[in-house]
Amino acid sequence: MRALLTLTSLLISTALLLIGQGMQLTLLPLRASTVGMADFVIGVSASCYFLGFVGGSLVIPRIIAKVGHIRSFAVLTAIMISAILALEMLDTWPAWMLLRFLTGAVICGLYTVIESWLNDQTNASNRGQVLAIYTFIILVSMAVGQVLINIGPADSSVPFTLAAIFLALAIVPVGLTSRLAPAPVAATRVSFRLLYRRSRTAFAGTLLSGLVVGSFWSLGAVFAQRYGQAVSDVTLFITAGIAGGALFQYPIGWLSDRVDRRYVLFVLGLAATAASAAVALSVGHTLHLLAVFFFGATTMPMYALSLATAADNSSTEEFVKIGTAVLMLNALGAASAPVLLGQLMDLYNATALFWSSAVLSGLFAIYLGLQTRDASQVVAAADHVPFSAAAPEVAPTGFALDPRGPEEDTCELMPEGGPDPDEMHAAEAPPEEASPPVEPAPAHRESDLAVSPTPEAEDGSDVSPPRGS
């Protein structure tokens, strides 16, 4: 509880940020459809968003290392607000591709700031509790964002302005905090080959999650708009899917701790096939939202379950690298699917989105059925790493916070960017850590205070310990 109190301002900022993020994820496909963009173009713009997310995970940690967490959070949020307001004003597809790529990169950077800060403020005894609360805040805030879209028509500036307001307010709690910010984050390290070698099941489940759930976020609002009567129908549609995923994640995770996770994923694949077909067939029916609820319940937990499967088959020291591969593979799947599915929706009709999800889920179930015959992939239930809630709306730094990773001692926190009198947190530094009086030295720049690059061995390999070690 004490750890949560120290993180209050950061968690409040997270909630405000994710409300605005949840609004824009649904608003942008709606606006694109309203201004007459083809489903294929909407799908490509969504792919640009997920590609931006991948690119941001590789580039933005270096920026944070140079300027610090608080400045990075403020700057990235300002860019996010500007991009969303520009998307509201522009209706040309080249501008949308560029701006959606930018929003993907920026939101990944914001997740990186938040999660590295959470990691530095927790320890092995409370890390799991903080991660669970963080995941809960993500899901609830995204759902609240769906409801707030109804404040005005999608073709007006009102919902975009409200989303920008929530994003702007997210700067306030972090900007006013007097606590020291954490040390710079480590660079992202990913190995898809390692993930595949450790667990082919986790690799396939992660890819399916990206393809199916990423398509839901990218084109689900367009599907709902085609068959709905108002914006409220679209927001109820998206909220039903989120609710299903949030409510079923823990029960499915609890079950997977007690039986072979491959069997749980196999059953989820079959259930997702049926649920996807039910969504396509129940258009205009009173049970349509119930079908969407079970679609979310059967597809959204696959990411967390695939991550848990990968953790079962890897060492503690490998978890951060394996988890990063899971996240990046999920994002790449989410980037590739909308391009094809958007074209199918143009060629046939909007139900092609969920018929495609049914086919993909069915192929996954067949693959899992074959994998269950491989005795080398069996992990006894007694040897399972306990399931932890997870969502793909995180950055790679979030895996250092996960209790399944290597334990780390509480890191020594340092002021961001050195002794800058304009930074409130620098004023809070303990007096005993202050340097003794010396003759005045030339002023130095913040870039001079940046953490040295990670040392390398003579063969070029990284010799520093991983972030969570």
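Above is the first protein from milestone M3; the second protein from the same milestone is given next.
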Amino acid sequence: MVAEQAQPARLVQLGGRVAGSGGGPPMSERTTDEFPATDVPLVLHVIPTSRARGAQREARAVADYLESPGTRLHRVLSLFDSCDEVEVDASLNHPGGDTPAVGFDPSLGFRLRSALAGMDPEVVVAHGSEALKYLVPAMLGRRRPLAYYAIGTYSGSDSALQLRLWRHLLARADVVAAVGEEVRDECIERMGVSPARVMLAYNCRDPEVFRPREAASRSTPVVVFVGALTRGKCPDHFVEVVAGLRARGVSLEARIIGDGPLRQTLAGPAQEAAIAMLGSRSDVDHQMREADLLVFPSRPEGEGMPGVLIEAGLSGLPVVTTAVPGVRSIVKGGETGLVVPVDDVPAMIAAAGRLLDDSELRSSMGRAARQHCVDRFSLAAVGGRWTAILQPLLDHAGRRRRQSAPSKKSGRRHSVGGGAPGPAMATDSDPLATSRYGR
């Protein structure tokens, strides 16, 4: 439990973006304990780090899209220190950004509780389990709605104690936004969340950012892996695929974009296979436009609806992917990409070889992928779902605030700023009907 006497979390602010002054390098020199006052309700999106990974990029894109000046503010807060690849509005810069999923640091819970008191959001959104496990204790005793964005299937221990812990955390969320059907079903069937509190919110990206290249295809095709260098993402299988293609005499360039604990282990084999390791990049959209084929060799644990496949599709890039959760919604097998069994490296080599040998097939699949992803996974297509999820929480929080604090000083303690108009209001059933706020 996070105690009330937590010390204030000081933030650093410049140009509308702020960062914590403790536990990491500051982003500017001016500090502030709270944001300027405004009566406009704030939705705070919390992410673990500002690394350019799919969930973090999506949180930024969703917040910007839903922003409606004068009506509602959407801001992004990161918890841990990391390289500044995704623009955030505030960061606690807490140590441990390289391993945010490992363990639980109570001192971060104290700092987060203090930051929430200063920012005073109307609604908080936890993007992923790493954010949720800190927000639940930090919000204890505070009547503030919490939405949890479940971005992947459960990948933790199967021990009864661990499962009880995560069921408890999910039970504290007023609404669970599931990134895909498999994640939704697991939240209900394995985690015990009431179906009335689970809503679908597909992964989404901005098609103006992720767009096809205008130049003609290269004479030597570029094959890329984009993702964290972890065992679950299987970058070692990508190295095997490239080595296998080269052994068959296929001419190609190969690049690994991402960072993680397997970086050193992969360095030698990647060099032998003539693969460029580019590390973590903030220009993933540009890297996609430079590529001709994406290989996604992931295992199912932790996957929900891989955002990198949406980014590839919007970029007009065909894919070779394993059959993990979410793939059946994103990739039309044989039309926008090729789907192979998990851990089947020979099948990956064969599928990649087929596409690399046929530039017309790559082009036709890329065009179909772009259209499919614009129709189903663009911000315009998914933004209305987020409005339907968040608006009942905002309405309920606003009523509670007006009823319980009529004598408090006017003005809220969060920052204001411009932004793109949000989408039109979407209608849906009220998820508060069975939540701990609605009872």
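Note on the second protein: Residues 379-404 form the longest helix (26 residues).
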